[in-house]
Design goal:
Length: 256
């Protein structure tokens, strides 16, 4: 039940969903005063959420900064790679399709090839509300093999549906393999790292964090950044709303 409620909350708190609901209310309501209030509120929020400068500043404050690989204190036994970067089954079915966030995988392989991690533990099953046979960890294994990772160096956890479940199941795997948390590197997107780290700390397995997939860009003091609406800005706010809602829901549920 929590899984369904949390997914529903994530959708309802997305910026475009909120703006759309307000515009719809401005249409269906009969009282002229409330129609104007909802319309102007929706319009103001649309301008706010599409402002590149504001969105970039908010995301920069939230993202965990990536660090150079050569600043890692030592080598690690496992890189724990969290999923959430593939598109699922799309035709033709002879390849894996990536959305934004593919450098979670490419940076993990770079860490592996350069010897910073010896093995890769991929964690993530199917996070959709409607259950399918797709398991993202299985898809990523195919990609890792194509990129030259030895099959014996890949461990899969393909049952988890969200970050909390990943932390629980990864903890069980590490305990089974007798691997300490300080021998692992947690790898996920910069915007997702705070919630991920909190979940793993709650499970008693604090890991060194390695952030990837940075969404922010260099601060721009230009007219287009301040005044021209940006669809990328809306994307940033969508990511932030998902993480903030997730953090609140996880806090209420006791997951962090």
């Amino acid at each position: 039940m929590f899984f369904i409620l949390s997914k529903t909350a994530l959708y309802l708190t997305q910026p475009l969903v909120i703006v759309t609901i307000l515009f719809l209310l401005s249409i269906v309501l009969r009282r002229a005063l409330w129609k104007k209030r909802f319309f102007y509120t929706a319009f103001a929020l649309l301008l706010f959420f599409s402002n590149d400068f504001i969105a970039n500043e908010a995301m920069y404050a939230w993202e965990v900064r990536p660090v150079p690989m050569n600043t890692l204190k030592r080598n690690y036994t496992y890189g724990v790679l969290l999923t959430g970067v593939t598109m699922g089954k799309l035709p033709p079915y002879d390849r894996v399709y990536f959305k934004r966030g593919a450098d979670r995988v490419t940076h993990t392989v770079q860490l592996y090839k350069q010897g910073w991690i010896k093995k890769i533990l991929v964690s993530g099953g199917n996070g959709r509300l409607i259950e399918t046979d797709e398991r993202e960890a299985d898809e990523l294994k195919k990609v890792l093999l194509l990129m030259g990772v030895n099959e014996s160096d890949i461990v899969l956890e393909n049952e988890s549906r969200n970050t909390h479940e990943s932390s629980v199941l990864v903890k069980a795997l590490l305990r089974k393999m007798r691997v300490r948390a300080d021998d692992c590197l947690l790898i996920t997107s910069a915007f997702h790292m705070r919630r991920s780290r909190a979940c793993f700390v709650k499970q008693g397995i604090p890991m060194t964090c390695f952030a990837t997939d940075v969404y922010t860009h260099k601060r721009n003091f230009t007219p287009d950044s301040f005044f021209i609406p940006s669809d990328e800005a809306i994307t940033l706010w969508t990511k932030l709303s998902k993480e903030w809602t997730g953090m609140l829901a996880y806090k209420v549920a006791g997951y962090i």
